[in-house]
Structures are given as structure tokens and as C-alpha cells.
Amino acid sequence: MELLAVRLKQNAHCTVGDLARELGVSERTISRDLSLMRDQGMQIDADRGRGGGVRLDRNWGVGRMNLSYAEAVDLLISLAVTEQMNSPMFLANLDSIRRQLVASFSPAKREMVDRLKSRILVGVTASTYVQAGTSPPPKPIVQALHQAFTDQETLAIRYQREDGETSSREIEPHYLLLKYPVWYVVAQDHLRNASRTFRCDRILAASRTGTHFRLLPKEAFQLTPDGDELVM
Fold first, then answer.
1. What number of helices (H) and strands (E) belong to the chain?
2. pLDDT in tens, 52-101
3. What is the pTM of this model?
4. Are 187 and 196 in contact (CB under 8 A)?
5. At what angle do helices 27-39 and 16-23 cross, to 10 degrees?
6. Residue 166 · residue 158 · CB < 8 Å
7. Which of 199, 195, 216, 192 has the alpha carbon at shortest distance from 123?
8. Start and end of every HTH deoR-type domain (predicted)?
9. How far apart are CA 162 and CA 199, in angstroms?
10. How far apart are alpha carbons 113 and 73 in whole angstroms?
């Protein structure tokens, strides 16, 4: 039905027959899908008479967005990061967007979101030296890190230091730190049995272990500057 909705919105006028031929299905299937779309609240207009067409109201969908819980959480956290960065652009409607998203959550889920937001730290912008040597981490690594962070799950990683030396570690991703545009993981490192900060783009591989950890307070992690890097 998604393809059908897109097709209807793109074209001001098309018949059931046209749609059936274009999408490779029967006219009966198109008619059934149109009925289901109307049941879901989509505004579908139809012209009466021989050769009449159907169309989806071009204004349908404005103000409507079906997000999963995980997607809504990501959006809320992104809004929070944007606000913490104090960017003057495109902030006028953030309060309204946030209120609408939060209103869709149960009290228990709102508390979960607040806890996640409190675990994301925003620091000063990264130096030009650091920015010149960074690149976006591969998507599978980002996904593994994201899930481990959200679920408070230990992560097995392969990490490369600035001098090129690599090591295998198990880390507890307690906090995420953004020194725009570079992300760091503030973690408990099982290999060193100590706190460490890892630059996300230097993680070469990452996999979840299924082992969960108890969150430590921010005070347990003392961040100190060390040139253009961060150490614990």
C-alpha cells in the first residue's frame, strides 16, 4: 500500500486500471487496498462516472508521522543534543515537537527517555586537528554501539589507537560524549579494569555480548583534556 499511496500523491488523476497496470496487480487488489487505506484514515478522493479517477489529498500526511518507540527516542535525543549545542538556527519549533513526542509516551517510557538523555554529554567542538583525522564509523558498528548503549549491555570491540596499535576489549558504554562532530564512548574498560574514553570512529568492530551492567554516576568518570584527545 505504501507504493500505492506514493503513486496517488504524485499524480493528480489516475484510474484504478492505470494503477493496476503500473503496479502489476489486479483492479480488484487496487480497490481492496484503497478501501483499507480509507479505513486507516487516508483522505482518498474519487471522481464519479465513467473514467473517473482517484487521488490522495496532497495535504494528507502533514502533521502525521508513525514512529516506532525506538525512532521516537532517537528523535527526542537528537533534539536534546541540538538544544545543548545552542545552535541559533532552526530551533523555533523544537519545544512544540518535543512536547508532541513526549505526549505519545507512557509515564514509564518518559522516564526511560529522560535517563537516556542524561547519559549524552555535549562538550566543546573538536579541534581542527581531530576533525581532519575523523570519518563516520560503519553502520553495523554504529548500530551495535547504539543498542548496547541503550540497553546498558557490555560491548566487545576491536579498537585502534592514534598510533595504529589495535586491541580487543570489552567495554561498558555508560555515556556518550559529543565534541562536534566527533563522538566518544565514555566506558568502563574490562581489559584495563578502569574508566576509558574511546573515539567512535576508531572502533574497527563491535558486537553485543548479552551481559548487562549497572550504570555508574557521571562523577565516576573524570574527563581531563590531553592535547587533542580525551583520556580518563
1. 8, 10
2. 577 666 555 545 556 677 777 788 888 878 777 776 566 666 777 777 77
3. 0.66
4. yes
5. 110
6. yes
7. 199
8. 1-55
9. 10
10. 6
